[in-house]
Write a structure and sequence with these properties.
Shape: globular
Low-confidence stretches: 1-39
Order of helices and strands: HHEEHHEEHEEHE
Structural class: alpha+beta
Number of helices: 6
Strand content: 15-25%
Strand order of the largest sheet: 3-4-5-6-7
Helix content: 25-40%
Largest sheet: 5 strands, mixed
Distance between the termini: 107 Å
Number of strands: 7
Radius of gyration: 29 Å
Length: about 200
């Protein structure tokens, strides 16, 4: 009886091994370490990726959306030599606005970068009794989404388009009221929560 059981067991083992192999499972007695699963690091670009984005013109930084926060990305804008300071502010602001509206590169999209700023928006300087640092958008700031306005305010505040204190005086087309906006840590961490803090400007 014992011999017969041994024979049956010996016959069963090759059959069991064949079934396991057919299922894609290879029996092994040695633990196998396949390493960590591959993953994409969100909101992280390599040095090579960054350099390709700012290879021409004046180096600038714009704020893009990534993982529900604002993150800086290197870009460049073209400013003609000899441009007067007042005109330079507007040209820088328009260049930044165009870069914000540009779709992120394929590499940036893989890293999770997006933008809420839509194309076709323009910016102009002061008109009438506006203060010298006024920037008027073709779309009224209050008509933009909180995320788009946060991108614009924080990008402008970190550039030559801002005042010395980093605030940005924005208005819409026509004679709409002006408001001075600030890019705060709360805005950078939660741009979609609410519009950037602002105060009405009564100097115009």
């Amino acid at each position: 009886m014992t011999v017969r059981r041994g024979v049956l067991l010996g016959l069963a083992l090759p059959v069991l091994a064949g079934v396991l192999t057919g299922c894609g499972i290879r029996a092994t007695q040695v633990p196998t370490d396949f390493g960590p699963a591959p993953s994409l690091v969100p909101c992280a670009l390599s040095g090579a990726d960054i350099s390709t984005q700012s290879s021409r013109g004046v180096p600038v930084q714009v704020f893009m959306l990534c993982s529900s926060t604002l993150v800086t990305v290197d870009r460049s804008v073209r400013i003609p030599d000899g441009t007067a300071e007042a005109e330079r502010r507007v040209l820088v602001a328009q260049g930044l606005l165009d870069e914000l509206a540009e779709a992120p590169s394929a590499v940036e999209q893989q890293a999770g970068y997006t933008t809420a700023v839509r194309g076709g928006m323009t910016v102009s300087g002061p008109r009438g009794k506006d203060p010298d640092d006024t920037l008027r958008l073709s779309t009224a700031p209050e008509n933009l989404t909180p995320s788009a306005l946060a991108q614009i305010v924080c990008t402008f505040s970190d550039s030559a388009a801002a005042q010395d204190d980093g605030s940005v005086l924005l208005g819409g087309p026509g004679a709409t009221a002006l408001r001075r906006y600030d890019c705060t840590p709360e805005v950078r961490s939660s741009p979609a929560a609410k519009p950037p803090p602002s105060t009405e400007d009564n100097t115009s």
